[in-house]
Amino acid sequence: MLTIAADPKHLGARIGITSVLHTWGSAMTHHPHVHMIVPGGGISPDHKRWVSCRPGFFLSVRVLSRLFRRLFLEKLMAAHHAGRLSFFGDHATLTARRAFAAHLRLLRKIEWVVYSKRPFGGPEAVLAYLSRYTHRVAIANSRLITFNEHGVTFKWKDYRIKGRDRYKRMTLGTFEFIRRFLVHVLPSGFHRIRHYGLFAKNACADSVARARELLAAAKPEGPPTAVDANKSSCPCCGGRMIIIEVFEPGCTPRHRPTGPATVIRIDTS
């Protein structure tokens, strides 16, 4: 993403990326993939202007997919040469370098898919969607139906089927259920959420401030004083409170609560 966006033939700008790793499917199968949130533009190389993407188009998915395919297979070959890959059973023959190289040659001939789209519900909906499982585990307690020493029965969703028939039950042996669950426990020190480009930790504050300036956006207010911080904190949980209106005792507030916003609920557990 960073490489192609920086190419003048495509966008010609430095973009920001927030990526979130997701490793499971509804049946707790191993399905590693990454969701990425990317603004529709970036800062020019000379830092003097904001470069917006074309309406309805960000980067070519074909160019993205082919670069991703090349980089992925190069890293895979490097890992094989370093002895970091292990093969068992029917795949044991891939331990040999020639056999593995022949296997990768077949993968270079097929098209890889990179999916890119504009969020249907806007950026808020995307952030709400990803926030639901950034700190979740592979299965929620609400999906467990029964369990004993012989196995575990749980609900799962078959996304290949539409309608009510997609909701099913699955029973796994105790050890298989534990194995599937532990597949999604990340190694120590591995970060599920990562930031790149304009959002990289070492330059995020300066980059975002410059982007706001170029977009002529209102700068965020400075840090609150100790008195203001106490006034805007919830006395129960300590969370941040947003002041909508201040009115004198006995006066009628001008603000009227609005109805609840439409909630897009997507179960990703």
Commentary on this structure:
- By secondary structure, the chain is α+β, with helices and mostly antiparallel strands.
- 28% of the residues lie in helices and 17% in strands.
- The protein has seven helices and eight strands.
- The strands form three sheets. A three-stranded antiparallel beta sheet has the order 2-1-8, covered by helices on one side. The chain has a three-stranded antiparallel beta sheet with strand order 5-6-7.
- β1 and β2 form a beta hairpin.
- It is extended, with a radius of gyration of 24 Å.
- 8% of the residues are buried.
- The C terminus is likely disordered.
Largest β-sheet summary: 3 strands, antiparallel
Which percent band covers the strand fraction? 15-25%
Instruction: Determine the structural class based on helices, strands and strand pairing.
Output: alpha+beta
Residue ranges: pLDDT <50 for 5 or more in a row? 226-230, 260-269
Q: Order of strands side by side in the largest beta sheet?
A: 2-1-8
Number of helices: 7
Helical residue percent band: 25-40%
**Bulk shape:** extended
Strand count: 8
The separation of the N and C termini measures 28 Å
Radius of gyration: 24 Å
Mean pLDDT: 84
Oligomer: single chain
Helix and strand run: HEEEEHHHEEEHEHH
